[in-house]
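Forwarding the complex inputs:
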Amino acid sequence: MFPSSCLKSHDSHLYVCFACSHFMTPDYVWYVPAQIERRMELVRLVSHNAHKRLVSCLQGQLGTDSEKRHKKLPLTALSQAMQEGGSQLGDDSLIGKMMDVCGEAENRLATELMHHEVQLERDILDPLNQLAEVDIPNILKQRKQLAKLVLDYDSARTRWYQATKSSNQAMAAKTDSLKDEMDEALNKVEICKDQLSADLYNFASKEGEYARYYVTLLETQAEYHRRSLAALEAAIPTIQFQQDSWTEKPAFGTALEEHLKKSNREIALPLEACVMMLLETGMKEEGLFRIAAGASKLKKLKAALDCSTSQLEEFYSDPHAVAGALKSYLRELPEPLMTFGLYDEWIQASNVSDPDKRLQALWVTCDHLPKPHKVNFRYLVKFLAKLAQDSEINKMTPSNIAIVLGPNLLWAKTEGTLAEMAAATSVHVVAIIEPIIQHADWFFPDEVDFNVSGMFSMPTHPATPDPEPSLDRKRPGSLVGQDGDSHTPRKDRYLSRPNLSLSLQESRGPSVSALYVVADESITVTETPTEDLPSPDFKAVP
Amino acid sequence: MPEQSNDYRVVVFGAGGVGKSSLVLRFVKGTFRDTYIPTVEDTYRQVISCDKSVCTLQITDTTGSHQFPAMQRLSISKGHAFILVYSITSKQSLEELKPIYQQVLAIKGNVEAIPIMLVGNKSDETQREVETKDGEAQANQWKCAFMETSAKTNHNVTELFQELLNLDKKRNMSLNIDGKRSGKQSRAERLKGKCSVM
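Prediction (whole assembly, two chains):
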């Protein structure tokens, strides 16, 4: 009986059945299924809520014009603050430049956001509002109207029916007019029903359109994010370029190559600055590089060296702080001056037993250093050799310098995780550095002008000329006698690692006999990883 | 790791050049050398009596010139007792001990049960920068013992080590191997005698 359109689907069925009720008997006309009403109401309610929540997501004021909206955005305020900050600091300051660039980017983001919100309002918020607050209420209102008209028609019909049944003449006379009334009421019902049907058809056919709002919402948001991302990606290379082109990077803790490249230097700034200051005032200082400096002074000097514009004059009077800063610089390098790559080679070279061949091996390894490292290492070694020339006064012989400075020049990559390894390493490093300082002029025959960049004042006594600028790779005979003089008593310290266990055995032998001679006398065992050693010898003590 | 046997480990800390090695060498060898040689790290052993038997007193002489945190932490975690040395001629050297003390505190947690001796060395020097009362005040603050010594004149050196051992309440230790608590002076005499024999 129903038109085929009524059976399309369950949802539309309900509406259409109601809408096409004129095919049914009038008794059914006023029958409005409650679920239709509930459903319409539900759609209205959820649309209303979605609208409300979406509005609260907006940062701009709803309904205002785009310019005003843009001005009110928090991002705009941020952008303005940054650009003002940038202009106050000026272009000399990196922070100022960055704030300017960043402020511009934020402004672009604010514009994107404003466009996005305007679009959201136009394409989603307004239609949703229309649906929830106007369209559906109108339909519901019309339905109420229809119910009222149906009631009117019903009572008119009842009156007409009673009149036809009545035997009363007067009543019968009125039958015609009652019939007219009834017809008119029916007509109104029909009109209202048609209108309502049209609206309901409309609503049903538009469900797809209403649902589309949500697709549009996501599309709009995606587009906004894409545009924002594009704005950010356009800004990032600019700001990164600014950052990278800024030369004043801290030297401490920065890889040597990077620092040299950034600052366009040949010798690391802290190295040259410290050497120049020490040449001036530190060469006669007892225990230079050994005695610790005041922690706060050291911190201040390190910070001053990181910032090339600062004044260094005050530190001339504190050579220990200067030496400490130089040590810190070397220690804080991400890769030691003598490099991780050559670590094994250095150790191997220092293990060569023949002194001449050992020097040759060290020279070869030295020659393998990458150029920036080699140049800076040479500079430092030449300075340390010069310092050792005054060892009568400053007590810093090549051996002593190697002990206090060596561990800052070379370490294994695993240092820190294997502290015991590090302890063994220190011993090796001393054995590597000492001969290099001792024979600095053989390792590096060319004279070094310590005042490379001219940034720091000249020392009062210029570098002494190199007496032996020989390129002969053989160890100079004149130096043989000097070797070992200063550290003979401590020779046992410089045990090479592969011999470690053997040497310990040897050194323990005499200790045991001494123990028997004088039971409570001292026993000296010189070694480093003490924990690993069982001590059966001592259990023999009565 | 092998059994720790019954070693009693003492670690000596302090800034460069305050006389850590001189103190230790004076104690274990009875000698003083007026040379100037920084230390990498040395360990010395001596037999002492502990709870009526013998054990080995192991003294670790650390470096003052380049403190690698990992090595310092290792020494602290291995040590039973600590000697913190400064030079009375350098205020700075006392300052240097503060981070070391903090490190001991951080690793050992409660330091009250751990023998710690603050030592002002070079007491023979006339150019004093740190007064005795300043050292005492620092020791009070750290709740540790305090002593002034001179490795050069052998003042308070043996006493320093004996006092340190006495501070350990968990063990009954004595530098004297036969267990008799002979007078400190006579012990020093005996030491000297033995040295001359050798």
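Chain A touches chain B through 56 residues (CB under 8 Å).
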